[in-house]
Write a structure and sequence with these properties.
By secondary structure, the chain is α/β, with parallel strands linked by helices. It has a single domain (4-232), classed as 3-Layer(aba) Sandwich (Rossmann fold), CATH 3.40.50. It contains seven helices and twelve strands. The strands form two sheets. A seven-stranded mixed sheet has the order 5-4-3-6-7-12-11, sandwiched between helices. Strands 1, 2, 8, 9 and 10 form a five-stranded antiparallel sheet that branches. Strand 1 (21-25) and strand 2 (28-33) form a beta hairpin. The radius of gyration is 18 Å and the shape is globular. The structure holds S-adenosylmethionine. Pfam families: Methyltransf_23 (PF13489).
Length: 238
């Protein structure tokens, strides 16, 4: 990984903002990811993220924290937050913004336990592909303290396969429709291609069943997106 994402965050943080990140996927053309959005405050966040922040309690792990926007809000509210990301640039920025406990780390290498684990801005993306979902989910479950919760957002991107006549051009013999190849470039440099997973709620719920997590729909967004809460199934029995 060249860490162009981290480089872009560092540029913005250090006052060198001249252009945005350019993204594209295996099913969509180039699009801009505005850097200011990655530094959004509470008011600039989608309602799903605001809801997740309101539900966060106890000790919190912010997985894939980016520049640390969610962590910063929670830390300012007096909550104990740990922010992790695989991007060194992202962690440097999170620290510069004042996150006390920020660490460059893959979530699969995390071993501490938490009351709340946040995965936001298509939190299922880091699972990369459907075949890896249960591995990530059971690891996340192992990081929960008794009574703990995972708050995660994603979308059903089926609409991206809809043509102008309302028909769908999805190849039903190919892989799950939310599995995408994701391409990112910044200031003329290309990042190595990544896999990025969008999961519809029902598929997430079925995957949760396989690792004994109860998956609850908390809120639906405006565009096929949703926020879910995952809790160990046994703790979920009333
Ligand atoms: C879409 S960005 C979201 C950033 C931030 N949560 C936000 O909402 O602005 C996804 C982040 O996840 C990080 N990431 C990807 N895979 C990861 C992993 N396995 N463990 C930790 N972080 C990961 C990426 O480096 C990136 O910063």
């Amino acid at each position: 990984m060249k860490d162009l994402f981290g480089k872009a965050l560092l540029d913005y943080q250090n006052g060198n903002y001249t252009e945005d990140i350019v993204t594209s996927t295996s099913i969509s053309d180039e699009d801009k990811l505005p850097l200011p959005y990655l530094f959004r405050g509470f008011k600039g966040m989608p309602s799903l993220e605001q809801k997740a922040l309101k539900l966060a309690k106890g000790s919190i792990l912010d997985v894939g924290c980016g520049s640390g926007s969610h962590s910063l809000y929670l830390q300012k509210k007096g909550l104990k937050v740990k922010a992790i990301d695989i991007s060194k640039g992202a962690i440097d920025v999170a620290k510069q913004r004042g996150i006390i406990n920020a660490e460059k780390k893959n979530v699969l290498d995390e071993t501490e336990t938490f009351d709340t684990i946040l995965l936001l801005m298509n939190g299922t993306g880091i699972f990369q592909e459907l075949s890896q979902v249960s591995k990530y989910l059971s690891h996340l479950k192992s990081l929960l303290k008794t009574g703990g919760q995972v708050l995660i957002d994603s979308s059903d991107i089926k609409y991206m396969y809809e043509d102008e006549d309302g028909g769908f051009w999805m190849d039903t013999n190919s892989s799950y429709h939310g599995e995408l190849d994701y391409f990112l470039s910044y200031k003329g440099e290309r990042e190595l291609p990544m896999k990025w997973l969008y999961l519809d709620f029902n598929t997430l719920r079925l995957a949760c069943d396989t690792v004994e997590l109860k998956c609850e729909l908390i809120l639906e967004g405006e565009h096929f997106d949703y926020l879910a809460r995952l809790i160990p199934a046994k703790a979920g029995i009333l």
